[in-house]
Inverse folding.
């Protein structure tokens, strides 16, 4: 069980919004994590350095602010097969659909992109249905 | 300078995810669990990020024809709702709903050194590579 944390949610969201805005205004790039991650690992891509630096910065940012009130999770109950299946689905889906929660959900929605509005609605509804089924139908 | 911006942007993103606790899979799943003990935090994270990014985009980006430090904005202008978009978003939503971890948090929680989180991250990268191979095969024919 987790409690509603409006203040930290607004503050954290603001930082994510500023992050995405800076990257676009200065560098002309979209802060879509799945795209940055995937492209950073393509040997043929000759514009990889900024992506590695962004990803390094992301981890550094986590390191700076993690503390007992905003901790990292220590473990997860999910079984290994579930972990692997979910990982494959998240990776496959974000690449095939050209974006994840950040690229579509924030940068795309913020630009009022038609594709991102449809993508975000689709993955939000699918994810909510998945949770409903796993927690209230199978898990009940 | 561009690399410095990339670093700062990354740091802010990681800090934001952690402060908002979007790195906690339970918090994400509890947002998605509308009929359960609902935790609306993620909605506020998105609302806050969207307000800042969206207003900045329309006031500061759309009014320019190039970014401050580069030649052009690399932004998708594709408007077509096609099959890959729907299949991809559905698959992504299914995986996200099963475990509560999306790509940003997946990278962030590698810091824990937890084997399951590392396993999830590797599986995610493999999933991306498989999707790339499939789309290469389709478009090369």
């Amino acid at each position: 069980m987790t409690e509603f944390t409006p203040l930290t949610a607004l503050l954290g969201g603001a930082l994510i919004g500023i992050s995405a805005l800076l990257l676009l205004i200065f560098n002309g790039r979209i802060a879509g994590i799945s795209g940055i991650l995937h492209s950073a690992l393509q040997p043929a891509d000759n514009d990889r350095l900024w992506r590695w630096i962004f990803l390094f910065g992301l981890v550094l940012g986590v390191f700076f602010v993690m503390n007992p009130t905003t901790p990292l999770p220590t473990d997860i109950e999910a079984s290994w097969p579930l972990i692997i299946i979910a990982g494959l689905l998240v990776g496959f889906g974000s690449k095939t659909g050209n974006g994840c929660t950040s690229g579509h959900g924030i940068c795309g929605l913020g630009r009022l992109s038609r594709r991102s509005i449809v993508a975000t609605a689709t993955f939000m509804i699918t994810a909510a249905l998945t949770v409903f089924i796993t927690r209230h139908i199978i898990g009940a | 300078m561009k690399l410095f911006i990339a670093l700062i942007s990354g740091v802010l993103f990681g800090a934001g995810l952690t402060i908002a606790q979007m790195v906690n899979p339970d918090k994400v799943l509890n947002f998605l669990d509308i009929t359960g003990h609902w935790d609306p935090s993620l909605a506020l994270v998105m609302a806050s990020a969207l307000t800042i990014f969206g207003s900045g985009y329309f006031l500061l980006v759309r009014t320019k024809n190039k970014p401050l430090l580069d030649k052009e904005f690399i932004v998708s202008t594709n408007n077509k709702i096609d099959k890959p978009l729907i299949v991809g978003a559905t698959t992504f939503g299914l995986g996200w709903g099963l475990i509560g971890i999306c790509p940003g948090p997946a990278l962030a929680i590698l810091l824990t050194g937890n084997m399951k989180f590392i396993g999830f991250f590797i599986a995610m990268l493999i999933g991306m590579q498989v999707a790339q191979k499939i789309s290469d095969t389709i478009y090369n024919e």
The CA atoms of residues 66 and 72 of chain A lie 7 Å apart. Residues 6-138 of chain A form one domain.
